[in-house]
Amino acid sequence: MRIMLSRARVVLAGAAVVTAAGALAVLLAGPTVARAPSPGDVQVSGTTLKSALLPGSAFGPGYSSLWEQDSGRVVKPSADVSAGTMSCSLYSVLLGDASLPFDPGFGFGSTARASQQVLSGSAVRTYTQAVYQFKNPRAAAALFARTYAKYGGCRSFSLKGEAFKLVSESSTRISGHQAFLVEQLVAVPDNSSLHAQTLLSIDGPDVFILSVQAGSGGTPASATPAALMPRLMARVSKLR
User: Which of 94, 120, 211, 230 is 20 to 30 Å apart from 57, CA to CA?
Assistant: First the structure.
């Protein structure tokens, strides 16, 4: 019994020391400061997201916007298409059903979204960039995972006379964030072919997309989706 009491006293004495040290730390630290919100706590509108999209100059000389869209100034979960019903097409507006993410008209439950397509006067390459903001990182991760699985199943399909064929799908990382890259060949009606790259990445509550379609000349290393994505992610991150 004496041994047990002795141990109890040691434990209590140790606790008293820790408590005193903790109190001293509080006194030295001064008044309590409220925790700064994490990036996932800050939600912005689609209009604000659009302002963070890469400018045409980021893609090369002579590039400018062909079209751009956003979900407006209201921040709330979209009630439209479910991610579980995505089709292979990237152009859902033309087909009237759900597609792989691109057009912000289909929000997949995102609270805000924006996208833009840019091209040069020569139209050798066409780029599309998009950002989907979700209520939390878990919701963003769900769309990211479903999109990865869907691309893997879209090995070949046709759209308005163009035939899409999956070449490869590979996981990668962009600035430390999860990402995957899809390579496709696109046969167009004039018997020529295009090489398409689509890169998706995720950062907290945001899903990012950068895609390019290029002719036989390929895509310059300075303007690949992998080279451009960190810049897009950094611009959106600054909003938070």
Answer: 94
